[in-house]
């Protein structure tokens, strides 16, 4: 990552400087880039983590063995079950596509809290957090020379294809 500048969040190329912007995220991924920001902190994290985490995961996600929960049964008409499978799918999108980590098979539990209320979730600026995650990953790659960049690779590849001459 010799052409990424962490101080300015830009690529320095022979044709000039360029960077990924929120309109780029909206164009390439179709994500909302306006609305309530995704962020903040969980004020009572220790209490939540110790007492409620697994109950919450069990309530919000499907608590079946992995081989049974890969596909939602077509006969599902129960709204609660449908919401659980929807949350699982969104968590898979977050951890496996939008905000990957180096393991590419784990999703941080912080994202689950955002999926508790679908109305609030719909109003969040997901594009902003994907862009911030991508910037952070590129900065980390520029300084640490990792073998794998944890970011939204499809955003980066699509952006490069359309923007860099």
From TrEMBL:
<dbReference type="GO" id="GO:0010073">
    <property type="term" value="P:meristem maintenance"/>
</dbReference>
<feature type="domain" description="Aminotransferase-like plant mobile">
    <location>
        <begin position="2"/>
        <end position="164"/>
    </location>
</feature>
<dbReference type="InterPro" id="IPR019557">
    <property type="entry name" value="AminoTfrase-like_pln_mobile"/>
</dbReference>
<protein>
    <recommendedName>
        <fullName>Aminotransferase-like plant mobile domain-containing protein</fullName>
    </recommendedName>
</protein>
<dbReference type="Pfam" id="PF10536">
    <property type="entry name" value="PMD"/>
</dbReference>
<dbReference type="InterPro" id="IPR044824">
    <property type="entry name" value="MAIN-like"/>
</dbReference>
